[in-house]
Description:
single chain; alpha/beta; Aspartate Aminotransferase, domain 2; Aspartate Aminotransferase, domain 1; 2 domains; seven-stranded mixed beta sheet; 15% strand; binds pyridoxal-5'-phosphate
Amino acid sequence: MSADNARFATRAIHAGQRPDPATGAIMTPIYQTATYAQPSPGKFVEDFDYSRSSNPTRKALEANLASLEGGAFGLCFGSGCAAMDCVLHQLKPGDHVVLCDDVYGGTNRLFNRVYDKHGIAISLVDLTDHDAARAAFRRETKLMWLETPTNPMLKVIDIAAMAEMCRGRGVMLAVDNTFATPVLQNPLSLGADIVCHSSTKYIGGHSDVVGGALITRDAGLHERLKFVQNSVGAVPGPMDCFLLLRSTKTIHVRVQRHCENAMKVARHLEAHKRFTRVVYPGLESHPQHAVAKKQMCGFGGMITAEMDGGLEDARRFLERLRVFSIAESLGGVESLIESPAIMTHASVPPEQRARLGITDGLVRFSVGIEDVDDLIGDIEQALG
Length: 384
Ligand SMILES: *Cc1c(COP(=O)(O)O)cnc(C)c1O
């Protein structure tokens, strides 16, 4: 049986990898080389001529991630932002993009403060509102870009419904699957054209690598993206690719535990009087719980909750936590917590923050895979 036809857990460990033909090494080596000897001028071993274009460690990771997303092709980048930039390079001046309104701050910055200068028009739209989504398309619309669940409000957007809208209009759909992970949601199978990841988060899972990836099924689209990957050159080094390959071997186990722990923490917060609102896609109270159940096979490790006091109460709570660390980023084995209003979303203008529901008392949990009783105990002592 080829690893590519196997079930998820088997593919996580084996897809794109084989024992090293030279030595039998079980782990894909870190091919720390810039260039490759050619048997004859212009003839390469496989496609290896220069490491910006191709590198064996990166190639194994690209094949592995393509397999985990149910895609045919993977491309890896030096960061999630570099992966997004590769997609935006497919556009030209005059093109229009429909962007979901509650996106990662860096995504917002790339679209609105880098590509605006290149004549790309952006509409920020709440894509949980399908009438608003339909009304946002223009004749010039070339791309819809969405995240689901979103950051930090964890809105869940119906990928199949958006794919349907895009298909009829010849618009490309790109889905940032960073929060959901390939374990819980595969946008390509729901009709998306491109899946984007910040592999810094759950794919890496240990808060020790910055990386990004794009996964596709269409060979022509892959070639256009690969051309930009090579031309711009925002590629990851072999060592980072090795670390990410090591990470994907446990992603299914890690994500399962993230989900279990987050569900228990969310229920605990929901029952606690100090939290006036708890947002987690796995709770029946979540506005798009039904969509989440339909398109995800678990609800992830991220929780957003609103505290009854304001900024000072939230700050005091965060400072008293001992197991949770106050930090940006997410998706690592260790539990993190942050205040979107002062940290990740401080650069979002206050009126936009208010419109999205990012209040001063809001806290965002990245629930790790520690013992859940210790996590709940930590929350209790910090509130006490
Ligand atoms: C972190 C993040 C990014 C950006 O990725 P980097 O690896 O930090 O460049 C993009 N999208 C989402 C949802 C993220 O969480």
